[in-house]
Specification:
By secondary structure, the chain is of the alpha/beta class. It has a 7-stranded mixed sheet, with helices on both faces. A 6-stranded mixed sheet has the order 1-13-12-11-14-15. One of its GO terms (molecular function) is phosphotransferase activity, alcohol group as acceptor.
Length: 444
């Protein structure tokens, strides 16, 4: 086996390198143009015109004054429902002026359990809330808030902000098997409240607020936050951003064709059937999302296997791992678990670990650079952006990925010179709770 530098040099012309400044500028321009199209569109949300989806949520931004007016001790049942982990909790405002979660219920939804009817989905959510009510006292609140990660449209109602699911096929392999037309079903919130009326401990719940998880993040506030823009970002399993009332769905914007086509590692990831082979193949989310990072490493290793530079089996090991922090762990260096998966000598294991560390590091660098292009594109569309401001971000890729925050900041410095961006570690559960409580607080 050759040394790691010789082997890695094969991958450099195939896409294993940081993006060039010119490439990042081109991506930034495309994202900015997509946002302009999506937020100025007069017709129904679509991506066929080259714009972001740009779904309007019928909400206004929560100001610092709105947050301060939330009474101490007020509470709301706040939930995060999307792919794998469903969280249901009671959130209250403390005497220190912050929102805090109380009893938290976590339910892991197995992939085999993600196909159901619309009414079954509503009942599952209602059951989660009922179970929380059986474990903790929720009698002091009449409000329910849901940070919802599935595609939907919003409507303002007398009982809050409701949602209509707009797609039969949802994220993370979920499917609503009887959803041919969402107009044939009652709105999600109305159905959930109706189910809760049948249980003694939840029948008093009267208001519900359902927002996309990224819009929920945009409402996250603390008492010390200054110059926070009305935007929200999620960089985790999924990738998205919000701008004011718009759920942009920016992770679904296609990378410029020439840049995507030059990434042969990306093509190999598709060959391994780790990417969709439809129109979503080249969306920017596929270079950033937590599930796709390990697939990128798997694609690079697979190319080396095909060129007979490394032993067979490493690519599929990375593709099949359930350890979503493995890319970050290897990028940081100091671990070497190759010998646990294939039979190699000590020297070969060392070389292979150096290769995986380098591939993982560059994969995270590229993801970080693209995160910066998204942030820069969104905040440039805010009409009154100061030179120094805060933005709320949720997601393990950004907050736990090795050096992701630092590289993102460096790239932002290139894209937005003379601007200081202060990321805030945000929570969609606390964000949607903030919005719901502010809507029910005394007005000035």
């Amino acid at each position: 086996m050759n040394d790691s530098s010789t082997i890695l040099s094969i991958l450099t012309p195939l896409g294993l390198r940081p993006f060039l400044d010119a490439e990042l500028s081109a991506i930034h321009r495309k994202l900015s143009n997509a946002i302009s199209i999506g937020t100025q569109r007069a017709s129904e949300p679509t991506t066929l015109d080259g714009g972001v989806l740009g779904v309007r949520t019928s909400t206004h931004q929560i100001s610092p004054k709105d947050f301060d007016k939330i009474p101490v001790g007020s509470s709301v049942i706040s939930c995060a429902y999307a792919g794998t982990n469903w969280i249901t909790t009671l959130v209250s405002k403390t005497k220190e002026g912050e929102l805090k979660t109380d009893t938290e219920k976590l339910t892991e939804i197995q992939e085999s359990e993600r196909s159901c009817t619309y009414n079954e989905l509503c009942k599952r959510m209602a059951d989660e809330i009922i179970q929380l009510a059986e474990e903790t006292d929720i009698s002091n609140t009449t409000i329910l808030a849901i940070s919802f990660g599935f595609p939907h449209s919003n409507v303002s109602t007398s009982y809050g902000i409701d949602a209509q699911i707009t797609s039969r096929g949802l994220t993370k392999h979920w499917e609503i098997i009887d959803l041919e037309s969402y107009e044939s079903f009652e709105p999600l919130g109305k159905t959930i409240l109706s189910l809760l009326k049948n249980h003694d401990k939840t029948k008093h719940l009267s208001y519900i607020y359902i927002l996309n998880d990224t819009n929920a993040v945009s409402h996250f506030r603390t008492s010390s936050t200054e110059n926070q823009l009305p935007v929200g970002f999620v960089f985790g399993t999924g990738v998205n951003a919000s701008l004011g009332e718009y759920n942009l769905e920016i992770g679904k914007v296609l990378l410029p064709e020439d840049i995507a086509n030059s990434d042969k590692i990306h093509s190999e990831t598709e060959n391994l059937r780790l990417l969709p082979s439809n129109d979503d193949r080249d969306v920017i989310e596929n270079w950033i999302g937590g599930d796709f990072l390990k697939d990128k490493v798997a694609g690079a290793l697979s190319l080396l296997e095909k060129k007979q530079q490394i032993p067979q089996g490493l690519g599929m090991w990375f593709a099949e791992t359930k350890n979503h922090s493995l890319v970050s762990d290897y990028a940081q260096g100091g671990i070497c678990t190759v010998a646990n998966h294939i039979q190699v000598s000590e020297r070969e294991a060392s070389v292979l670990c150096e290769i995986i560390t380098n591939i993982s590091s560059i994969t995270l660098i590229r993801a970080s650079q693209l995160i910066a292009t998204i942030i820069a594109s969104v905040i440039q569309h805010h009409t009154k952006t100061p030179s120094q401001f805060s933005i709320p971000i949720e997601g393990s890729v950004f907050w736990k990925g090795y050096k992701v925050k630092e590289i993102t900041q460096d790239t932002l410095g290139m894209l937005l010179p003379n601007t200081t961006v202060n990321p805030i570690e945000a929570s969609g559960i606390l964000g949607i709770a903030t919005y719901a409580l502010a809507k029910h607080s005394p007005k000035s």
